[in-house]
Design brief:
The chain is of the alpha/beta class. The chain has a single domain, classed as 5'-nuclease (Rossmann fold), CATH 3.40.50.1010. The protein has seven helices and five strands. The protein has a five-stranded parallel β-sheet, sandwiched between helices. The longest helix is centred in the first third of the chain and has 13 residues. The protein is globular. The chain starts with a strand and ends with a helix.
Length: about 140
């Protein structure tokens, strides 16, 4: 089974129904729901999504949206070592570095799905856009 980390941007594409991007993320989430792949986020991603969604909706609505999402996706742990690695990394975006090191340390993650491919140039894990990830998964199934 493939294990993938969903970056903040693709989760927000789905939650805000940002077209045309939301459709590919929806398809990936449906694969997670059917347990054909396993999807993950980090606490930072959940926090970022809460903060951004909260600007448009009330607290209870946002919490319910995130609870539904987390019924499909698992949360990777994060610790001080990941923060230190991110702080000392060559990543230009600190948040992306945090996601990357959480994914790498987990040893479960096969790939990261993001639309910010350029921000992960320093990554040794495979990095795919949602559409690229869907294409690869469909070839495997």
């Amino acid at each position: 089974m493939r294990h993938i980390l969903f970056d903040t941007d693709v989760v927000l594409d789905f939650l805000f129904d940002r077209q045309p991007y939301a459709q590919d993320t929806l398809q990936l989430l449906l694969l997670c729901e059917r347990k054909e792949i396993r999807g993950y986020v980090t606490p930072v991603i959940v926090s970022n999504c809460y903060y951004i969604l909260r600007q448009k909706a009330d607290h209870d609505f946002v919490k319910n949206q995130l609870k539904q999402l987390l019924s499909i996706l698992k949360t990777l742990p994060m610790d001080d070592q990941m923060v230190q690695l991110a702080l000392h990394s060559k990543f230009k975006d600190f948040e992306d570095a945090l996601q990357y090191y959480a994914a790498r340390k987990s040893a479960k993650i096969d790939a990261i799905v993001t639309r910010n491919l350029k921000d992960f140039k320093k990554a040794s894990l495979p990095i795919f856009s949602p559409s690229e990830m869907l294409q690869r998964i469909r070839l495997e199934l």
